[in-house]
Amino acid sequence: MNDFSVEAIGLTKYFGDFKAVDDVSLTVPTGSIYGVLGPNGAGKTTSLRMTLGIIDPDEGSSRIFGARPQSVRHRIGYLPEERGLYPGMKAREAIAFMGALRGLDWSEGRRRAATFMTELGLERVIDEKIRKMSKGMAQMIQLIGSIVHAPDLIVLDEPFSGLDPVNQERLEMLVRRERDRGATVLFSTHVMAHAERLCDRLAIIARSQRRFEGTVDDARSLLPMQVRYTARADADAGSIAALLPTGAEPRGDSWLFPIEDADVEPLLARITGSGLGVAGLSITRPALHDAFVHIVRQVDASFDADAGTDAVEEALA
Amino acid sequence: MTPFLKNMLVIARRDFLAIVATPTFLLFLLAPLFMVGMGLAGGMGASQLADSARGAGRIVAVVGADDVEALRAADARLRASVARRVPVLEVRIASPANTDPVAIAREKGSDTYAVLSGPLTAPRIVEREADSNAGRYLALLADDVLRSKAAGPLPPVAPKYEALASGGSSIALQQSLGFGAVFIIFLLTLLLAGQTVSSLAEEKGNKVIEILAAAVPLESVFLGKLLGFLGVAVLFIAFWLVMALAGGLIAALQIDPAALASMQNASKAAAALTAAPATGWPFFLGMGFVYFILSFLLLGAVFLGVGAQAATVREIQMLSLPITIFQVGMFSLSTAAASAPGSSLSTIAQIFPLSSPLAMAARAATDDSKVVHLLALGWQAIWVALVIFVSVRLFRAGVLSGGSSWKFWRKTTRG
Fold first, then answer.
1. What is the pLDDT of residue A304?
2. In chain A, which residues have their Cβ closer than 8 Å to the Cβ of B412?
């Protein structure tokens, strides 16, 4: 078995004259949880579709388990970004149908559907028609449908959007459990909190290109650590400013500034020696969110991380 | 079973159940009842009209009193031998009061087709229409009366009729069998295959198409859908076949066998039944069914492919007219071919893929070679596959890649 479940190299797609995806490569180690992050419209969905062979790339190629994606369909589970189920089908049938498409027995599919739904607190609606369900419920049904055949590769496109915090938590649990079963999970999101908690590795796509690839820690260490320092109350601002590196900003009683790894100990020595005292001091790696915004801003100056729904979803997560 | 077939059956099963397990399907299934009902009502009305009109029609002969008996006898003799239906003969004795045939012809209360008056050797015949059968018939009567008067009483001819037990089928009957096959296959495909045009609209509307496209080859989605619709069509046909058989059986039990037998002797339909198609009944019926399936698959595949490109329900509705007209075109081509077996037109109709099933079904009625049908079935099956192949390519390149605003006449993807 190959070490990589997914090897998509140099994927490129044009929509008319617009280059929707430009030379994006995704290599996903077997047995890992891999996140594809990016702002809306960056090309995440198109990249995933090309990776799965649903649409053909104009350039580049995709191999899954070392083979053409089309030849290993039964080992893949996929939750598309645009959710869709037959509204007239009952939940149990819908799940069994999706399993049957991937080669699972109907009866086994129905049995597993009931098990999954009970686990996820959906036992009330097992024999309910999809059209009677809330959007979030239908999404959970579709999610179960995409993993009911116990695939070796699970691809989820924006799986968390549209779910309430309880279901988001359940989904995270499900993703970890599938990974522990031995499956490889590839998912896209624009909500950093999930990626930070779940991902073993991640890629950041912005403006059609892959801008970063590595672990969560790799991403966070792109930015210098942040220091938040609060002096004893009687110190005057001028002497504090003189002590700290240039670029330190006062924020209330505190001062904020970035710091290189090598400068941490000298700074501590200077603070201790200055006699200004320490009422508060924290030196932290920036969150994935900051690294993400940093990366995206480099190519898209107008990107606003706190815009509208993103901020709300971020808060929920 | 190969995975491809399995996928196809999963899709077909879903579509079949989704169509059949709805109350609307019952309406669809029973729709021909409306047609039959309307047909019955219309037919009854028309036949009543015809009956009343027929009762009123007459021909009139105004003759001398001594000719009346001979005239009536001649009418009784000749009436049975004249192929056309002759109106009732009214014989009047000539008198000064009623010598004007024009006045008689214009009498109200009945349709008078012709009036004979004057001496039988040189009768004056007034006709409603020039050269009418009624006029000729009156002349014939006069002639017969004169001949029997001149020759005196003759012994009646006592013919003994013998029918050829199996005289073979006439070419005209075989051709009409072929025409019947074309018509039935056309009608069924017209009623049933057109539905496929909207079948992918459902998946595009509720976004299931991406699940399908990711999980199984699109070819099996398309073929599975066709198969599902074919299942519905076969169910529909089977239902009505059973209804017709049951109806026939009940009718046969209700009607007196003797009456049935005499009716059969008279009717032309019975003559058609005794006529066999050139390839024999079992082969002809079997091939008819197989050709129906291929005709359905071919047209269904074309419609499915075209409908898959349509972006909205309105576009699908707009497409249904050209599609129906196209079907009627195939029908006319095939009927033309059926009425001229062996002509180059019929060869064209048999080779052109979309009319081939119809034309070949007609050929089974008139031509007894059977191998050619295997060839035709293979040829048509190749075209089904080809149409599906092309539809899937177009669908992949267009609809899936370009999002929902894609139109098939505007290429937005590069390469």
1. 67
2. 15-16
Output Rg (C-alpha) for chain A, integer angstroms.
24
- Kindly state whether B7 is in contact with chain A, defined as any CB-CB distance less than 8 angstroms: yes
A78 contacts B214? CB cut-off 8 A: yes
This complex has an ipTM of 0.81
Looking at residue B318, its pLDDT comes to 84
CATH 3.30.70 in chain A, residues? 225-284
Residue with tokens 């060869």: B347
d(CA A267, CA A272): 9
**CA gap B103, B106 in Å, rounded:** 5
The mean of the pLDDT values for chain B is 81
DSSP B327-350: HHHHHHHHHHHHHSTTSHHHHHHH
From the list A13, A15, A84, which residue is nearest B210 (CB)?
A84
The CATH code belonging to domain A4-220 is 3.40.50.300
Tokens 């192929």 found at: B83
Report how far residue B187's alpha carbon sits from residue B182's, in angstroms, rounded to the nearest whole number: 8
Residues in chain B: 415
| pLDDT at B257 exceeding the cut of 70 | no
Query: Where residue A37 falls among pLDDT bands split at 50, 70, 90?
Result: very high
Residue B368, both tokens: 């007894």
Nearest-CA distance A59 → chain B (Å): 10
Question: Where are the alpha helices (H) located in B255-311, listed in sequence order?
Answer: 257-266, 268-274, 281-309
In our burial notation (b when 16+ CB lie closer than 10 A, e otherwise), range B154-189 reads eeeeeeeeeeeeeeebeeebbbbbbbbbbbebbebb
Interface of B with A in 201-260 (CB under 8 A): 202-203, 206-217
Query: The tokens of A63 are what?
Result: 């191999």
Under a CB-based contact definition with an 8 Å cutoff, are residues A53 and A75 in contact? no
Q: Which of residues 92-111 of A touch B (CB under 8 A)?
A: 97-98, 100-103
Q: What is the CATH number of domain A225-284?
A: 3.30.70
Residues in chain B closer than 8 A to A73 (CB atoms): 214-216
Local structure of residue A285 (DSSP, 8 states): P
Q: Which of A73, A76, A83 is nearest residue B207 as measured by Cβ atoms?
A: A83
Q: From A45, which residue of chain B is nearest by alpha-carbon distance?
A: B401
Q: Which residue has the tokens 């299934």?
A: B29
Contacts of A264 (CB under 8 A, 6+ apart): A225, A283
Nearest residue to A193 via CA among A170, A211, A169: A169
Considering only the beta carbons, identify the residue of A58, A74, A82 that sits closest to B210: A82
Confidence band, pLDDT 50/70/90 cuts, at residue B148: confident
Q: Tell me the residues of chain A between 44 and 63 that have a Cβ less than 8 Å away from chain B.
A: 52, 54-56, 58
| The pairing of beta strand B124-127 with beta strand B111-117 | antiparallel
pLDDT digits (tens, 9 = 90+) for B300-322: 898 888 888 887 778 888 887 88
Nearest to B14 among A54, A82, A97 (CB): A97
